[in-house]
Amino acid sequence: MGDAAAAALKTLVVDDEAMAVERMQVLLARIEGINLVGTASTGGQALRLIEALMPDLVLLDISMPGLNGIGVAEALQRLQRRPTVVFVTAFDQYAVSAFDVAAADYLLKPVDPARLRKAIDRVRELRASGAGDEAPSPYVSEFWVPYRSEIVRIDVDTIDLVEAERDYMRLHTGERSFLIHQTIKELEQKLDPAKFVRIHRSRILRRDRIRGLVHLGYGVWCVDLGDGVHHRIGRTYLSDVKTMAR
């Protein structure tokens, strides 16, 4: 009993809707190892309680009057001891901003109990591994992408190819692909250049997938991925790609 209490996640719920707070309290009561230390209805109140209570986990609504959830998460990044943030929102358009502030998960309302348990398990794993204690990397390690009725986490290390589709980018991971609302320039800046290389104005490839370069004549070069698929290299990017392939 004492060990379980010591290991419990000190949790703060932040939402400006009283009904949403009440429902979250009910869901959390059904999960072992959760110590609900408080609730807040505004961003400012949340920051004050976080400083006073030092929670391990903050279940944070995004759309709130005044300081919204993204603003709260940005402020938390300046703290030496930062709680883990899981966003809880009715809107999927904030997913891009969520990975910018290193949220552990992104839940859509109404929150599914099983999905909440999964998010809390992920928080436990992250905290046990010490993730978040070190200085944040300038590059992202994951993306949060709307898929069907939820937001799914895409590990950057599973991405093989990124292709532009109008106002979206398609992330190819093996046989699956996902759309994210980002420009290719924004995405390029978030991807580690040691792992990814831009070969065209509408295409970014994972470096370790490249097997070689193919010259088709007349100054046209393509990247060979070793699976019979060749991707044309834009003239603007040819010099950089050739340098990488040496």
Topology summary:
Layout (H helix, E strand, L loop, with lengths): L1 H6 L1 E6 L3 H12 L4 E7 L2 H11 L3 E4 L8 H8 L7 E6 L5 H6 L4 E4 L4 H17 L12 E6 L2 E6 L5 E5 L2 E6 L2 E5 L3 H7 L5 E5 L2 E4 L5 E6 L2 E5 L5 E3 L2 H11 L1
Parallel strand pairs: 1-2, 1-3, 3-4, 4-5
Antiparallel strand pairs: 6-7, 8-9, 8-12, 9-10, 11-12, 13-14, 14-15
Helix pairs in contact: 3-4
Give a concise summary:
The chain is of the alpha/beta class and 246 residues long.
Protein architecture, described:
The protein is of the alpha/beta class and 246 residues long. The chain folds into 2 domains: 2-136, 3-Layer(aba) Sandwich (Rossmann fold), CATH 3.40.50.2300; 155-245, Beta Barrel (OB fold (Dihydrolipoamide Acetyltransferase, E2P)). The protein is 32% helix and 32% strand. The protein contains 8 helices and 15 strands. It has helices spanning 2-7, 18-29, 43-53, 69-76, 95-100, 113-129, 184-190, 235-245; strands spanning 9-14, 34-40, 57-60, 84-89, 105-108, 142-147, 150-155, 161-165, 168-173, 176-180, 196-200, 203-206, 212-217, 220-224, 230-232. Strands 2-1-3-4-5 form a 5-stranded parallel sheet, sandwiched between helices. A hairpin with a 2-residue loop joins strand 13 and strand 14. Helix 3 (43-53) packs parallel to helix 4 (69-76). The longest helix has 17 residues, at 113-129. The termini are far apart. Mean pLDDT is 89; it is low at 1-6.
